[in-house]
Structure prediction request, 102 residues.
Amino acid sequence: MTMVTGYENIKCIRAFTMLNGLRSEIDFNMKLTAKAPSCYTLIKKELGFKGNREKVYNLYKEYLKETYPQVYADYEERINKREARGKRVFTDRKGKQLELPF
Prediction:
């Protein structure tokens, strides 16, 4: 188990969790938690961004790129590797192939 300590490190982890949460809201219409406000709402409120989910996502990515450049570069590298692997193929119990968007 990994433990993150230090105020700046915790802020960084939270920022990238919010980015992933916003992406899941856009792709799957899924929130991180049922009771807390959505990542979209939190980001708009904290940073004052305006626009729809896609615009806020792009603005937030640019914000993270400027605020945490090294961490963002590592994050982007992981995303590119995942996309290079291509779509994964899943099958259900009966052997029918399922198409998933990730």
Remarks:
- The helical segments are 7-28, 39-47, 53-67, 69-85.
